[in-house]
Amino acid sequence: MVEIKSYCEVGVSMQHVWVEGGLTLCFYFTLVPSVLLTLSFLFGTFLCICYRRYGTDMEPKFIPRSRLYRLQVGLSVLLVLQALGWMVFRITRSGELPGYVVLSGCLSMLGWIWAMALLHLERRRVLVRDRTRGHSTVLLLYWAIAFAAENLAFASWMSPQWWWTLEKSDQQMEFTFWLVRYFASGLLFLLGLKAPGLPRRPYMLLINEDERDVEHGVPLLGNSDENQSTWKDFGKKVRLLVPYMWPKVNQLTDGSSWKTLATTVCVYGLLKFLQGGGAGASGFVSNMRSFLWIRVQQYTNRMVQVRLFAHLHSLSLRWHLGRRTGDILRSIDRGTSSINNLLSYIVFSIFPTIADIVIAIAYFISNFNAWFGLIVFVCMALYLTLTIVITEWRTKYRRDMNTQDNNAKSKAVDSLLNFETVKYYNAEVYEVRRFEDAIMKYQVSEWKTNASLAFLNQTQNLIIGLGLLTGSLLCAYFVTEGKFQVGDYVLFVTYIIQLYTPLNWFGTYYRMIQNSFIDMESMFKLFTEEEEVKDDVNAGNLNYTQGKVEFENVFFSYTQGKEILKDVSFTVLPGQIVALVGQSGSGKSTIIRLIFRFYDVQGGCIKIDDQDISKVKQSSLRAHIGVVPQDTVLFNDNIRDNIRYGRVTATDQEVEEAATAADIHDKIITFPDGYDTQVGERGLKVSGGEKQRVAIARTILKAPQIILLDEATSALDTQTERNIQASLAKVCTNRTTIVVAHRLSTVIGADVILVLRDGQIVERGRHEELLAKGGLYSDMWLKQQQAQDSDSASDTETKDRKSEKLQPQTSTAGNKGH
């Protein structure tokens, strides 16, 4: 059974247009058939209506029998079967069929079937007023774009996702399908220029000749050889190949009626209205395009930023500890804006420009001379080739400029975030100098980027100028020889300038697309960052019953070869308070992070109520756990919302009750703005103790079943610490609590004290039991007591010295008084 799990392959999305040096297959096989079907359906339907309403059936004697026409039909059928075979191949390869394969296959088959219908229609019917021969512009354009689209695959020559390496059998089959499409579409385009299934001369001319043959018995233009080349007397035929809808420039002076001239001028005015008037003015089509594109751009921008933001929050604590905030923000800003530019350039600039080039080449060959088509083709080929080559060469300068830009912004952000540290060490001049050096490096890269851009523009201008000069000289020569009229020269110059205008922008658009890809690279790297801690595929919600926490032979290390925890095992019974003590680096805070599942263990397991926490959803696990961290960081918001962060649905009264329990309510109401007081970025406007109490209030408001206190009172004075301890004692009642403490006096009442050293539990028991053992805990206790006694003695001595300094001053004052 075939299963469609997603539109693109696993790990690929339509957001990632350019990956690993090439277009994604999902994007390519979505865009190409969509454009082709739209072209064939919209313009083909219009053409069918014209043929049905204004056309007539061709007499069978004028329809040539041609093997090349049969080849045209056969190639079209082959392309239909190719699309069907490609879908069957993708099904048999894996049994899973991405959605874009179904879309591409179906649209391709519909497009080529519709093209065959148009081919058959043009062979059977003809427009009465048509004075030209050959296929319609719609069919020629369809075949040309189909062939150009297959050439677009060469842009992904270096991508391992495509078939160019031919290392696997799947790639070999994909390459075979591409070869069929490439040669079939290319041959169809070449045959389309020859139009073997249509009369070799304009049909109305054949009708007139036939009537005169009947009347006079002699042909109008003499006998014609059925086997002669269609290129014979080409110069005499080109004047008959002007499309019936294209108005002649000479019509103003050839004696046409006022009604005809007025119609022509009105059509011209309408087209200019659609295109746009003066320099810089946008036409109706451009304005409507911009209006309709607003929603598309907003949706893309919103979805990319939201998904990236969600992805960043899903990354591990290890990644966030090593990130550079300024670098990330700059990458996000450039990446999101680049996506909008990329889509806009591709849809509204690149493909219309390519279509203009293909149409121009076909038009100049069929209506002027093969030399003009060759001039345009060579000029376009040189222009596009040099544009791509030079742009690829300057890519390294753009990447280096982005890197230096990120470095400058990162230094600025780091310096401003560490404002206090800069002031402490009087390092303002040093920071300014560092920032200036970063800007200087950025400007060196910027100069290289802009200088290479100027070189690219000059090269493009040279090619365009040479092409225009060559074509103009050739056209002027034909005018002097009497082969062309003045109107033909005006038409050529007007058309070629009209063509060079978008082509001149093509280099800019390609450069912008290249820059957009470069600007998106950093953002794509953020998307490719793997989540270190992931929910299991079959993970369920934590079934909380009592709150028993168990560590079973847990091993953990942040880096390879340096174990932080070594075979740690302990159990926290429901409602117990367990304290973790030990020297810095012994693994106390790591245990807290593992329970909250910031990291996954390398050995053993952690259980809550006999459930392995690595097998349950992270959101479900963390909903039952409250943490008061050692270093509290507040949002740049008011105090009320910072406390409410513990439970965003809490009322103002509940927030104030939590603040009261955390012994901060009385302090808050003394502020001028009360609970609306802004705490500043990272809470810099409030003291360390106040930040700690806000964190405690958050946890109290969350009301979790399991509480983790990581040095929760480390930043508080003695009196406030006692008040907080009393509040925490109430909060922790009947809740499983794990406390990390440096001051042993705060964990005297713990049910169990675990003493850690070098990632192992060396002692465990109650306070009195551990003192009686005379081990590591006893030594730590004695050292802290001695330090407290020393501090008390130092305080007493300081007070005595102040008294001694004041006493002589008092005596002297007394003697002077006497």
What does this structure look like?
There is one protein chain. By secondary structure, the chain is α/β, with parallel strands linked by helices. It folds into four domains: 1-222 and 232-245, no CATH class; 327-532, Up-down Bundle (ABC transporter transmembrane region fold), CATH 1.20.1560.10; 543-624 and 705-810, Rossmann fold (3-Layer(aba) Sandwich), CATH 3.40.50.300; 632-703, 3-Layer(aba) Sandwich (Rossmann fold), CATH 3.40.50.300. 61% of the residues lie in helices and 8% in strands. The protein is built from 25 helices and 14 strands. It has helices at 25-54, 67-94, 99-124, 137-151, 169-194, 203-216, 234-237, 258-275, 284-314, 317-321, 325-367, 370-393, 395-417, 419-424, 428-480, 486-528, 588-595, 618-623, 639-644, 652-661, 665-668, 688-702, 718-731, 767-773, 776-817, and strands at residues 18-19, 22-23, 55-57, 125-127, 549-556, 565-572, 577-582, 603-608, 611-612, 625-628, 706-710, 736-740, 752-757, 760-765. A six-stranded mixed beta sheet has the order 10-11-12-7-13-14, sandwiched between helices. A four-stranded antiparallel beta sheet has the order 6-5-8-9, with helices on one face. Strands 1-2 form a two-stranded antiparallel ribbon.
